[in-house]
Amino acid sequence: MSISSSTSGSISSSTVFSSQVSQTGSNTASQTTTAAPVKAQDRDGNGYIDIEVDYDGGPGRHFSSLGNQGYKPLNNAQRGELEAQMSDMSADFKVRFHKKGTYATPDAEVKYGTFKKNDKRNNLIVGYPSILPNTATEVYIRSNPGNPKDEPLLAPNGVNRGGNLLARALLYSLGVPARTPEAGEPHSKGYSVHSNRSETLTGQDYKNHSISRPQIDDFDRLSAKYTSNTEGDQIYRLASLGRGLNPATMTIGDTGGHDTLDAAGDTHDQMIDLHPGARSSVGGFKGNVTLSSQTLIEDVNTGLGTNTVMPNASINTVTLGPGSNTVAYNHDWDSTPHALDTIVGFKSGIDKLDLSDLPRPTGMDMYLEGRFPLADIITVDGASYVRRWNTRGSATHRGNPDFMVRVDGIQDRDVLVTKSHTLG
User: Fold this and answer.
1) How far apart are CA 404 and CA 415, in angstroms?
2) What are the backbone dihedrals phi and psi of residue 377, each rounded to the nearest 5 degrees, phi first?
3) What is the side-by-side order of every strand in the sheet holding 250-252?
4) Does residue 271 contact residue 281 with C-beta atoms inside 8 Å?
5) Residue 347, class by beta-carbon neighbours within 10 Å (0-12 exposed, 13-18 middle, 19+ buried)?
6) Does this UniProt record's set of keywords contain Transmembrane helix (predicted)?
7) Whose CB has fewer CB within 10 Å in the chain, the N or C terminal residue?
8) Of the candidates 129, 114, 108, which has an alpha carbon nearest to the alpha carbon of residue 31?
């Protein structure tokens, strides 16, 4: 059985974390790093890091020496959640996971299991990294049915603490530690799955959902070790985030293809920022969708609530849902006559085009006095375009506009040129 689908990480033959991979019961990380991340080795040259996964082969050679007692293999629910996380990871990186014995030439091996107690430390996760080929990295998670704090691990899912523990175990097995000497301890869950500090410290809010997918610091560390998987056009479906067993958060690292953030169907108010490195709020959460600094998304579909979209410098198509939408531009270069955005489904009198954050043009005071047009709407062959200039003068003598976007059906009253002034 191949355990591969949409996201994945892998294990390098060189260790990047200490032999005691652990997180204490009080959530104080005791792990340290000993070397800078190195790229995982694709030993057979097939373009992927293929990892053999052992769920039930018994305790590994280091289980007892780590201080563990009471080994059990992962149960079906634990395997299912872990495989879902592996699948998500494979979408972002060239890593594939395979059940033990199903792949002839794996690049690395990892053994997972649980333990009932540890006589050396009160840790939730204890492991031993392999530094030798054909020797498995071992990662064990505390699972004690008598301890209420451990109960979620018996039936983990994408939103509970059990899913969070498996996410941390997966990252540990891929050589992504809780901290590095350079970065220090992760300062909030908004930055790392490993953190014990609330994401609200950074203005984000995941509504008490446990974090079960890599956050931006985790993603950056994975990127340092594994080749990104950015071929082809991707649709990132955001409307299901936090629903059912789906995780509440998503970090996107995509530098290839023509990609779409699809939030159609979400009934919550949305704030979607397409700029590289930005955070968006979808599904009733705050700041739960993060774009890596290298990610460029071309298109977006909004949902049913009151939404704000901020396009980026690529050629964007913004498809507006039935809710009330504002498309806000921050830079002139985010839509120009030569790289023209298109806003689809604009509803005059309901939706807004907000140009108030564009650079203040020469002669703004004269515009506000009604003495010359700063922006206008033209219709050519049935298509409507909003144009804006940064210099004063008549429309016939200003040359090409600095900003231009296609918005069919828009009227003067729908265009905010300042926070309190429209074209109408």
Assistant:
1) 12
2) -120, 130
3) 250-252, 289-291, 279-280
4) yes
5) middle
6) no
7) C
8) 129
Residue 64: closest CA among 5, 138, 13: 138
What's the pLDDT score for residue 382? Answer: 94
How much is the pLDDT for 215?
Answer: 94
pTM of the model: 0.86
Residue 158 — left, alpha, or beta (φ > 0 → left; ψ -120 to 50 → alpha)?
alpha
Q: Which two tokens stand for residue 230?
A: 């950015």
Query: What pLDDT is attached to residue 269?
Result: 97
Residue 256: per-residue pLDDT:
85
The per-residue pLDDT for range 33-83, each reduced to its tens digit, is 334 457 889 988 999 999 999 998 899 999 999 999 999 999 999 999 999
Mark 12-50 as b/e (b = at least 16 C-beta within 10 Å).
bbbbbbeebbbbeeeeebebebeeebeebebeeeeebbb
109 forms bridges with which residues in the sheet? 52
Q: Are 317 and 344 in contact (CB under 8 A)?
A: yes
Helix ranges (H only) for 67-211 are: 76-92, 151-154, 161-173
Q: What angle do CA 185, 188, 194 make, to 5 degrees?
A: 60
Beta bridge partners of 20: none
pLDDT tens per residue, range 133-162: 678 999 999 998 778 888 889 999 999 999
Can you tell me the distance from the alpha carbon of 413 to that of 421, in angstroms, rounded to the nearest whole number?
9
Q: What 3-state DSSP class applies to 76?
A: helix
Is residue 241 a contact partner of residue 282, using CB atoms and an 8 Å limit? yes
Which two structure tokens, joined as six digits, stand for 67? Answer: 């201080």
Which portions of the chain are predicted below pLDDT 50?
Answer: 1-36, 369-372, 394
Look at residues 387, 191, 208, 176 and name the one whose alpha carbon lies nearest to residue 290: 191
Is 303:263 a contact under the CB 8 Å cutoff?
yes
